[in-house]
Amino acid sequence: MSDLDSKLKDICKDLAGIKKSVGFGEKKKKIKELEVRSANPDFWKDKEIAKDAMRQMGDLKNQVEMIEKAEDLLQEIRAADELGLKGELVKNKKEILKVINRLKLSTYLSGEHDRKAAIVTIHAGQGGVEAMDWASMLYRMYLRYCERRNWKTEIISESEGEEAGMKSVTFEVVGDCAYGYLKGEAGTHRLVRQSPFNADRKRETSFALVEVLPELKEVDMPDINLNDDDLEWQFFRASTQGGQNVQKVSTAVRVKHKPSGLTVTSQTQRKQIQNRKIALDLLRSKLWLREQVKTEEEKKKLKGEYRPASWGNQIRSYVLHPYKMVKDLRTEVETSDADSVLDGDLDDFVQAELKLSLKILA
Q1: How far, in Å, CA of 20 to CA of 13, rounded?
Q2: Does 138 lie in the same domain as 64?
Q3: 33 and 139 assigned to the same domain
Q4: Could you tell me the CA-to-CA distances from 26 to 30, 106, 163 in Å, in that order?
């Protein structure tokens, strides 16, 4: 058996195992059922149920399409081998291994909320405009990462810096296993570079905190009961750039959960009722996180499966001066191509963290 035949045999075995593990046939059947439901004139009467159904259908289609892509690449590899097209053979082999690796990782994401959408918050640390600029750089990095994965993003709230960057931003990420993939990004991110904000171009160190939560709705967490008496609401005008779109009414909301002291804000929707709903979902997710921390601390099992975002929990360093290097302090994965990382090329870091936390051999 040739080396290629051996590798193809391994790929076929992996692909067959993945199809069985994810229930490939059942997923295709479920897609057809959802397509029939969505064609019903009454489908959109309950917009929330319809929205969740469409999101589920999108996730299922992404998984099915990825598996079908792997099958197509397998056929192209065989054809290229028969025709002696070495360039196509190398290209397609590299691509199919990448797809298989992503499929494998997605099957391992079996946590209770791994398949849900994610809510990501980035906070600038101490350091004034430097830290706020770093927070905006991280925000762009994650947006580019989401674009690469065809995930949708939407801002929930943001607070811009006075001179540059942002003090904080919270955004939703919708895509298959978004929370499962992004949860390992929670923690403190450190930047070292020459400052673009002073004439001496001094070397500066900045910090930003990333929090990642699963998007939890009332149906997901029936045990978390948000009593009206425990909630303190504030309503205000959403911040805008002015001009014709300046807010005339108080559509933005801030809600404080009095028993826990947790406060969340939602300000980007045009209607107050929409911002209220988003704020409640975000509050529910934060209360879940609080319980997770409490449980994990009690069990003393903080071994990587879950890491609370905290300033003392530095996970990655991004050095842009005097040399370029991005290094993850947990997995030891590093690269000198810092520009690509800041442009959203995070796959190596995300996958290494997943493998570490799930105790999977690379």
Answers
A1: 11
A2: no
A3: no
A4: 6, 17, 53
The domain in which residue 135 lies consists of: 114-362
pLDDT of residue 3: 63
Q: What's the CA gap between 135 and 248, in Å, rounded?
A: 29
Residues 157 and 80 in one domain: no
Closest by CA to 66, choosing from 115, 101, 108, 36, is 101
Q: Which residues contact 216 (CB under 8 A, 6 or more apart)?
A: 113, 116, 224, 281, 284, 285, 288
Q: Do 306 and 335 fall into the same domain?
A: yes
The size of the chain, in residues, is 362
Number of domains in the chain: 2
Domain end residue (candidates: 83, 108, 133): 108
Tell me which residue of 199, 218, 185 sits closest to 315, measured CA to CA. 185
Supply the DSSP symbol for 308: -
Cα separation, 184 vs 205, in Å, equals: 23
- Rounded CA-CA distance 182/173 in Å is 9
Using the 3D structure, point to which of 86, 108, 130 is the last residue of a domain: 108
Query: Which tens digits make up the pLDDT trace of 30-55?
Result: 999 999 988 888 888 887 778 778 87
Give the C-alpha separation, 121 to 213, whole Å. 9
Query: What are the Cα distances from residue 330, in Å, to 78, 200, 324, 354?
Result: 39, 34, 19, 11
- CATH value at residue 79: 1.20.58.410
pLDDT tens string 247-301: 445 688 888 988 888 898 888 777 888 888 888 888 888 888 888 777 666 554 4
CATH number for the domain that contains residue 230: 3.30.70.1660
Task: List the helix and strand counts (H, then E) for the chain.
Answer: 9, 11
The greatest distance separating any two alpha carbons of the chain, rounded to the nearest whole angstrom, comes to 73
Grouping H, G, I as helix, E, B as strand and the rest as coil, residue 359 is coil
